[in-house]
Design brief:
The protein is 75% helix and 0% strand. It is elongated, with a radius of gyration of 12 Å. It has 61 residues and is mainly α.
Length: 61
């Protein structure tokens, strides 16, 4: 059974992995990819929110 904290942590992990995959698939420079990946890893919730607003996007529609 998941407790509230465990479920929240799992959702954050899934969101962060999805964000990192999208960063790595984007057309951004290698330096930008590294910076965004580090931000998402070090600040999981805030990094994900910042990536949603300011981060690089993949070429897909």
């Amino acid at each position: 059974m998941f407790y509230r904290g465990g479920l929240w942590g799992l959702l954050v992990l899934i969101a962060d992995v999805w964000a990192i995959v999208n960063v790595l698939q984007s057309a951004a420079t290698t330096g930008s990819k590294v910076v965004w990946t580090v931000i998402i890893i070090v600040l999981p919730v805030l990094g994900f929110i910042l990536w949603l607003i300011f981060g690089p996007r993949t070429g897909r529609s």
